[in-house]
Amino acid sequence: MRNKDDEKVSVRWVPGLLSSIQNNSVMVAMMKLLQLYSANQRTFLLSILTGEETKVLYYNPLSMRESMEWRKLGEVLSSKAKVLQSTKKVIATLFWNTKTILMINFKPRSTTVNGDYNTSLLY
Fold it and tell me: Is the dihedral of CA 25, 30, 31, 37 positive or negative?
């Protein structure tokens, strides 16, 4: 039975919820990481490797602001042709740790990206 002070609200949508099996797997992995950290705190963070993928344009022209030049009063302005941004893109994968970028890899077209592909980059 509804109370007069109750209000109807929408639940918050999230991209996806983990199943109980997935939650257990995450918990086991996190416990192992905590054990490793406890055993050797100094080198643990240095041993973490992470990665990211991003789309990179073949050609990305300067913006209007980036292409501005300093001129003295009365100097003739130079001309430049309008250049359009490239429609072709390539996927770049970057791997880094706490100290430096370890690898930048540009994927060939029509390459399937999955765990096996990324593992092959590292080994």
Answer: positive
Average pLDDT along the chain, 123 residues, taken 10 residues at a time: 73 75 92 92 84 79 76 78 73 87 84 80 77
- Alpha carbon distance 84, 61 (integer Å): 7
The domains of the chain are located at: 15-48, 49-122
How far apart are alpha carbons 35 and 47 in whole angstroms? 14
Asked if 89 contacts 57 with a C-beta cutoff of 8 angstroms, the reply is yes
Contact 95, 102 (CB under 8 A): yes
Q: Which residue has the tokens 């399937």?
A: 112
The beta strand positions in 9-115, using DSSP E, are 50-57, 89-96, 101-106
Query: What residues form DSSP beta bridges with 51?
Result: 95
